C-alpha cells in the first residue's frame, strides 16, 4: 500500500519560513518524480515545484522562484519544500504527489500553511 504523508505546515507571519516534508512509502521512491501543489480556498490547485527522479533537476512556478527550494533525500524517501519569505498569498493547503511520467499517481492528504500579514 502506498502512503504519501505531508507535514510541516502551520501558521507563520509574513516574511517567515516553513519547511514542508513529504514522506513516501510503498513505492520504489527513486523511480518517481515528486511534485508539490497547493490549493487556496475558492481557487484551483496549482503546481508549485517538482523534482525529478533521475538528476534532481527542479522547477518552480514563477511566483515562488527565489523563495522556495525543493530537495529530496532518497535514503529517507522524503522530499522537502523549504519556503522562505512567505507571503499571505502563499497560504493554502499544500499537497505532494508522485509520478513516473505524465500523471501524478499518488497523493497525500495535504498540510495547511497559513500566513498572517
Keywords:
mainly beta; single chain; seven-stranded mixed beta sheet; four-stranded antiparallel beta sheet; 117 residues; 11 strands; 0% helix
Structural description of this entry:
The chain is mostly beta strands and 117 residues long. It contains no helices and eleven strands. The strands form two sheets. Strands 2, 4, 5, 6, 9, 10 and 11 form a seven-stranded mixed sheet that branches. Strand 5 and strand 6 form a beta hairpin.
Helix proportion = under 10%
Given as residue ranges, the uncertain stretches (5+ residues, pLDDT < 50) are none
State the shape: globular
Total number of helical segments? 0
Radius of gyration: 13 Å
- What composes the largest sheet? 7 strands, mixed
Q: Please report the distance between the alpha carbons of the first and last residues.
A: 40 Å
Strand content: over 45%
Mean pLDDT: 96
| SSE string, helices as H and strands as E | EEEEEEEEEEE
Number of strands: 11
SSE-based structural type: mainly beta
Summarize the structure.
The chain is an all-beta fold and 117 residues long. The chain has no helices and 11 strands. The mean pLDDT is 96.
SSE topology sketch:
Blueprint: E1 3-7, E2 10-13, E3 18-25, E4 33-39, E5 46-51, E6 58-60, E7 68-73, E8 78-83, E9 92-99, E10 104-107, E11 111-116
Parallel strand pairs: 2-11
Antiparallel strand pairs: 1-3, 3-8, 4-5, 4-9, 5-6, 7-8, 9-10, 9-11
Amino acid at each position: 500500500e502506498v502512503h504519501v504523508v505531508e507535514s510541516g505546515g502551520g501558521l507563520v507571519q509574513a516574511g517567515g519560513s516553513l519547511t514542508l516534508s513529504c514522506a513516501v512509502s510503498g513505492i520504489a521512491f527513486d523511480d518517481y518524480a515528486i511534485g508539490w501543489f497547493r490549493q487556496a480556498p475558492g481557487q484551483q490547485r496549482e503546481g508549485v515545484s517538482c523534482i525529478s527522479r533521475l538528476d534532481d533537476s527542479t522547477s518552480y512556478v514563477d511566483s515562488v522562484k527565489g523563495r522556495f527550494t525543493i530537495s529530496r533525500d532518497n535514503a529517507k524517501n522524503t522530499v522537502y519544500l523549504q519556503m522562505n519569505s512567505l507571503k499571505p498569498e502563499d497560504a493554502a493547503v499544500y499537497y505532494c504527489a508522485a509520478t513516473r511520467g505524465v500523471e501524478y499517481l499518488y497523493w497525500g492528504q495535504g498540510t495547511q500553511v497559513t500566513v498572517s500579514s
